[in-house]
Design a protein that fits this description.
With 172 residues, this protein is of the alpha+beta class. Among the domains are: 32 residues; 87 residues, Alpha-Beta Plaits (2-Layer Sandwich). It contains five helices and four strands, in the order H-H-E-H-E-E-H-E-H. The chain has a four-stranded antiparallel β-sheet, covered by helices on one side. The longest helix has 21 residues. It is flat.
Length: 172
């Protein structure tokens, strides 16, 4: 079928389709949520446990593994990644994408990890669940070129690509 021929011979169908698309677009634009600073949900938390002077293997065996097993019992947790170093266990816990209230998940993690403290080896600090490290602030910069003092015009204006390169350097 030839689309341009169909459009010319069935003008009313094309106009009705266009009007429908336009109406749906207006409706979506009118009901779209608007925020100057949108809320960003951070779905990660850290469980940090210190055991000064212990070897990394012992930290893995006596602290990281038991904590991972207990955290894995929580249904809303999607991934668990851990690092065991000399005297330190760091477990990164990620909540599932379907979770809307991450604070409740982190409260569950605290509730599961807290009772495990007496079973940790002597000298190990209580596990700390850090869920507030994801507070994000933003800064907006405007990059533009002005004439040198004492002149009216810009002698060598930068190309848009050059300004983009400068912006990338600032970002880095």
């Amino acid at each position: 079928m030839n689309l341009p021929r169909f459009a010319l011979t069935h003008r009313s169908v094309v106009l009705a389709f266009f009007a429908l698309l336009f109406a749906v677009g207006l409706f979506n634009f009118a009901t779209m949520p608007r925020r100057e600073d949108p809320e960003i949900t951070i779905r990660d938390a850290l469980v940090i446990t210190s055991w000064p002077g212990a070897a990394a293997e012992k930290v893995e065996e006596l602290i990281t593994d038991p904590l991972e097993k207990v955290i894995a019992e929580i249904a809303e947790v999607s991934t668990i990644e851990s690092i065991s170093r000399v005297g330190l266990s760091v477990i990164q816990v990620t909540a599932d994408d379907r979770v809307t209230d991450t604070d409740q998940v982190w409260d569950e993690v605290r509730a599961k990890v807290g009772p495990l403290q007496p079973r940790l080896p002597p000298g190990a600090q209580p596990p700390i669940v850090n869920s507030d490290f994801g507070v994000v602030y933003e800064i907006v910069f405007a990059l533009y070129q002005t004439p040198l003092p004492g002149t009216q015009a810009i002698e060598r204006p930068y190309e848009p690509r050059q300004l983009e390169i400068f912006a990338e350097r600032i970002e880095d």
